[in-house]
Design brief:
By secondary structure, the chain is mainly alpha-helical. The chain is built from eight helices and no strands.
């Protein structure tokens, strides 16, 4: 049965309930199922329990991805991935409205960031997600992280929005997601091979 009460009544009712995140005893914020803190995390990172992840948290994954890319520089998939990021940087530098967050990404082009380095970082994050170490909470968190790391590949002093993170991360996923999956699988296969007795 639909709840036809005014929104103000629904908000009052909702704010008397506990946040739906396990072990959080704060009250919900406005009409959200989460408290203000978890609601902000959901909006900014794509998951109520998500947080920023630092490069040092996936430094091992970065090394493994770098090795695979360096060993296979002429692989068609890797070439396409590098070409994609090269085009993304170029389009952003030209102010194209067909790519997400052109002003933010143009900074990378102007700073001379190499597309292969961006590909390495995106693949390392994907590998970290596949490892299920609990740092990346969901696919949405992964896309937000990818977008955030892309925007902040070089230091950005301002504040960004979760919608910007998601737009950039989703754009990367749509264009090179298959390549990132394949790189991750290749590395995991190598790990299994070396760990076998």
């Amino acid at each position: 049965m639909p709840d036809n009460r005014p929104i103000s009544e629904k908000i009052i009712d909702n704010t008397q309930r506990q946040c739906s995140v396990k072990h959080c005893y704060n009250y919900r914020f406005r009409i959200d199922p989460y408290c203000r803190s978890h609601r902000n995390a959901k909006r900014y990172w794509g998951h109520p329990e998500a947080r920023a992840i630092r490069r040092k948290d996936y430094s091992c994954e970065m090394e493994d991805v770098k090795e695979i890319i360096e060993q296979n520089p002429d692989h068609p998939g890797i070439r396409r991935g590098i070409d994609f990021f090269d085009r993304y940087l170029e389009d952003a530098a030209n102010g194209s409205r067909l790519v997400p967050c052109p002003a933010l990404i143009a900074r990378l082009h102007d700073a001379g960031v190499r597309p292969v380095d961006i590909l390495t970082e995106m693949a390392a994050l994907w590998l970290l997600h596949d490892q299920q170490r609990g740092l990346i909470k969901s696919d949405l968190h992964l896309y937000h992280l990818m977008g955030s790391r892309l925007i902040r590949f070089i230091r950005y002093p301002g504040r960004t929005r979760g919608t910007q993170h998601f737009a950039c991360g989703e754009y990367v996923r749509k264009n090179v997601g298959v390549l990132l999956v394949n790189i991750s699988r290749t590395i995991e296969h190598k790990w299994r091979k070396y760990s076998m007795p």
